[in-house]
Specification:
The protein is an alpha/beta fold. It has eleven helices and nine strands. Bound molecules: pantoate. Pantoate (PAF) binds next to strand 2 and helix 7.
Length: 255
């Protein structure tokens, strides 16, 4: 497994690849089974698998959230090695943003709901860094999890709008046996909270309406940020022990 710590070194290496297909999994590290499933699919569908690990400051709207984001780099690299990843990009912020946050991608009227209104700057930060990474990797395919469905949808629209020749591949959410969606933020929860957090999936899948889902979350001690329905899916964001968790399911999957 090759590790590239600078965009300059990676770019020189990238010029030598022509012919084999490249699949790309962008991540912020703290890798879990959800990431592993993206990597496995990527490996199955491409000749070369590239993973990036970059905790992107521009998508955090709270300094505290950025500071405490888990960064278990050695474990992440060991996992990627076991998964037989070919190339890992580990750029530093000053390399990806050499002039600070000089340009950013703005989604105009595309998406104003949920993360767009509850986390100002989040989607701009994601799209801007993903555009940079897609341009650096120039992959045939890039893999994104459906847990971050609004992010996935916005990225797919951006890629289409800017004629980026990378296919965006949506991948199903991976869950713990309790139903809790795999997320890097789960590592910040106590064992007790991790049990309680399964209420998000239960609320999404068993409630008859949004009000009932919200009440169920509150009854379990979660502080609700939103419960909404869009694009044939039901979404929730809620805080537990100060950790913000999100999830969504197709409305058709309601039990
Ligand atoms: O989903 C994530 O981990 C991040 O938002 C992404 C897509 C890697 C951009 O920083």
């Amino acid at each position: 497994m090759r590790i590239w710590k600078t965009t300059a070194e990676w770019t020189i290496h990238r010029r030598t690849i022509s012919g084999p297909t490249i699949g790309f999994v962008p991540t912020m590290g703290a890798l879990h089974r959800g990431h592993a499933s993206l990597v496995e699919r990527c490996r199955a569908e491409n000749d070369i698998t590239v993973v990036s690990i970059f905790v992107n400051p521009s998508q955090f709207n709270e300094a505290k959230d950025l500071d405490r984001y888990p960064r278990p780099l050695d474990c992440d690299l060991a996992l990627l090695d076991r998964l037989q990843v070919d190339d890992v990009l580990l750029p530093e912020a000053k390399d990806l943003y050499p002039h600070g946050y000089r340009f950013r991608i703005e989604a105009d009227s595309l998406t104003k709901e949920m993360e767009a209104s509850h986390r100002p700057g989040f989607l701009q930060g994601v799209m801007t860094v993903v555009l940079k990474l897609l341009n650096l990797v120039r992959a045939d395919r890039a893999y994104f999890g459906e847990k971050d469905y609004q992010q996935l949808r916005t990225i797919a629209a951006m890629v289409e709008e800017f004629f980026i020749p990378t296919e965006i591949v949506p991948c199903a959410t991976i869950r713990e046996p309790s139903g809790l969606a795999e997320s890097s933020r789960n590592a910040l929860l106590s064992a007790d909270a991790r049990q309680k957090a399964a209420a998000i999936y239960r609320a999404l899948t068993t409630s008859n309406n949004l009000q009932q889902a919200e009440s169920l979350l509150q009854a379990e001690g979660l502080q609700v940020d939103y419960v909404e329905e869009h694009w044939g899916r039901r979404f929730a964001a809620a805080f537990l022990e100060g950790v913000r968790l999100i999830d969504n399911v197709p409305i058709a999957e309601r039990k």
